[in-house]
Amino acid sequence: MRAFARGVVRLLVAGWAFAALSMMPPAAAAQQKYPEKPIRFIVPFTAGGATDIIARVMAQGLTETLGQTAVIENRPGAGSNLGANAVARSDPDGHTLLIASSGIIASPALYRNLSYDIFRDLTPVAELVVSTNVMVAGNKTGITSIADMLREARAHPDRLNYASPGTGTTPQLAMEMLKLRAGVSITHVVFGGAAPAMQAMLAETVQLGSMALSNIHGQIKAGAFRGLAVTGKERWHDLPDIPTVEEAGFAEFDFETVFILMAPGGTPDEIVQRLAKETIGILNRPEVRDRMQSIGLAVLARGPAALKARIAKEVPLYKDIVARAGIPLN
Where are the beta strands (DSSP E) in the chain? Predict the structure, then answer.
């Protein structure tokens, strides 16, 4: 009789367990086995730029730590909004992620009718790395400093042009703010990423450039371009001869490009936290930190809370900059 009773109890327990599992929400069930398929990183720029390089480092690291292949999909265009919208419209299951730059934080200031809401449709996962921006000139221009550039711009209005990795990126906003404060006109030539912008400079179809240092660090070191100024608070450690814009005479001038990881809005917090934990672990590996620094990037490795706070602070900041600089809305 006791054996029969124990058998009944076991059957009841098993039944309750089965019922609990069957009643589990699909999202909770998915979290238990995440990831269950390859992870897709959408990069809203062309291949070869800093965002793409960072994405490939992260993809390799997460392939190792999560046990699923991570692949890169480049979707340049519309100031990184094509790629951001693709992620915003994806299933919130952690299998489609966005690696982007500060450009998407500036987008609400630059576009009247964005197809996504950065606060509602995207979920912060991590701040990855940060790069100072740098203003450069082609060697044949004869421009060797910010003072030279501004003198030429004043003497020959609209003769100079500059390349940037896209409308709304911090390199573009940095140059536009400098133009505003200096009272000069330099034509903006838009590219779909840092790689084509740099190629245009190498081909001498544009004279100047404003880009994240990480995108052009090697070329400056090799002497392909002349670094005029960096936009951060301090000179970069291995380019000590390039002054800051503040040292060139423009106080409180600090524009950096931050690279971030986002997921679709509504992604379960358990998945977000796991992605953040694995991402921060990868970035804190000594070999990854060394590689990032060698191409002009400083590791941040901060989680969802830090990125959420940055977005909340910088969206209104960029709106103010765009309004003051008179940058037309798209």
Answer: 39-43, 70-74, 96-100, 122-138, 161-164, 187-190, 208-212, 225-230, 256-264, 298-302
3-state DSSP helix/strand/coil % of the chain, to nearest 5: 45, 20, 35
* C-alpha radius of gyration, the chain, whole number: 24
Q: What is the pTM of this model?
A: 0.77
For residue 10, pLDDT beyond 70: no
Q: Which amino acid is at 278?
A: E
Is residue 254 pLDDT above 90, yes or no?
A: no
Q: Which residues contact 123 (CB under 8 A, 6 or more apart)?
A: 92, 262, 263, 264, 265, 266, 267, 272, 304
Provide the CB-side half-sphere exposure for 28 (13 A, CA): 6
Of the chain, the percentage scoring pLDDT greater than 90 comes to: 63
- Dist CA 228 CA 207 (whole Å): 12
CATH architecture, domain 132-230: 3-Layer(aba) Sandwich (3.40)
Q: How far apart are CA 58 and CA 133, in angstroms?
A: 22
Side-chain-side CA neighbours of residue 152 (13 Å): 16
For the chain, what are the domain ranges? 37-130+257-325, 132-230
Residues 225 and 136 sit within 8 Å (Cβ to Cβ): yes
Task: Assign domain 37-130+257-325 one CATH number from 1.10.10.10, 3.30.420.40, 3.30.420.10, 3.40.190.150.
Answer: 3.40.190.150
Closest C-alpha to 227, from 218, 60, 177? 218
Regarding beta strands 122-138 and 208-212, do their DSSP bridges make them parallel or antiparallel, or are they unpaired? antiparallel
Mean pLDDT of 5-24: 45
Q: d(Cα 134, Cα 210) in Å, to the nearest integer?
A: 6
Mean pLDDT score across all residues of the chain: 88
